[in-house]
Amino acid sequence: MLDVPIWLWATFGISVVVMLAVDLFAHRKEHVIGFREAARWSAVWVALSLAFAGLVWATLGAEAGVEFTTAWLLEKSLSVDNLFVFALIFGYFAVPKQYQHRALFYGVIGALIFRAIFIAAGVAIISKFTVVLFVFAAILLWSAYKLVKDSEDDYDPSTNVAVRLVRRILPVQDEYVGAKFFVKKAAKWVATPMLVVVVAIEAADLVFAVDSVPAVLAVSDDTFIVYSSNAFAILGLRALYFLLAGMLDRFRYLSKGLAIILAFIGVKLILQAAHKTISTSIPEIPSLVSLTVVVLVLAASVVFSLRHPPEVESAEPPPSGASEASEAPEALESSGDAERSSRSVP
Fold first, then answer.
1. C-alpha span between 50 and 65 (Å, rounded)
2. Which of 9, 104, 132, 273 sits in a 20 to 30 Å window from 168, CA-based?
3. For 162-207, what is each residue's pLDDT tens digit?
4. What's the pLDDT tens digit per position in 307-339?
5. Secondary structure class of 172 (helix, strand, coil)
6. Any idea where the domains of the chain sit in the sequence?
7. How many Cβ atoms from other residues are within 10 Å of residue 28's Cβ?
8. Residue 335: enclosing H or E segment and its boundaries?
9. In the chain, what's the furthest Cα-to-Cα distance?
């Protein structure tokens, strides 16, 4: 474990609070986040993260700086995969675009709290039971397999246990009322769909934490490195979502790259656990090698996705004489789509 000075912990805590306050103040008025605004904020979050990595490097040494950067980049890359699920949640609950940032803001706060609990528990378990690293490695390898075989489109928010529990306990109206969670109707408090959306986001993040926390613990077992890197990656998640909104389908090979990264980290954990429990002669993968692999695989998957975009199927013209017959079903289908899209909450 690193000997982290109190002032560095304090600097990290103050930085997180100040950044959240600045972000909330900058977006105090609900509006649609455009590409340029999202790009500016993404650049800010990346710059702040790299600046903090430099501070860690200067204070705790080069090894700690490399571990922080690797953990931050790993968490950042895994978070990109989460964006697909966030897009499905927003689409399922028909969240107006001007309220999506506020929903993600509350989701980030919850993620910071739950990740702190997960990471503290993970570090405590590893420090006493090193053999648990093999279990974490199995989780990562299984997650890599699922990324290769499954699709993010399989996620259905309506089946989420937390969402169903909220709807069973609380009365939920169909209409959004700004970013409010509750409104008063006839002397009775009623939940809005925004509360259900935030619950769905938090529940999804808890599922993702099962993969991402063991992955980051493979990079470092120091609480400060693991949590601070997680926090900086999560803080930039909202800007990254709006930056990539509308382009997520273009990164079709990203999940394959993440699967390779998770598999590599799983092997790293196996070697690390074997080194500690079986024989010290078993080599471990250095942090610099891990950082290089993560950067190269992530870059390759993004470049390959952009160079080989998904093919758009062209609609074949209908045969002559069939146009009139097909107009009625098409009109009926379009009216059904319009009716479905007009509902605030399914």
1. 10
2. 104
3. 788 888 888 888 888 888 888 888 778 888 888 888 888 888 888 7
4. 877 665 544 455 544 444 444 334 333 334 443
5. strand
6. 6-310
7. 9
8. helix 323-342
9. 79
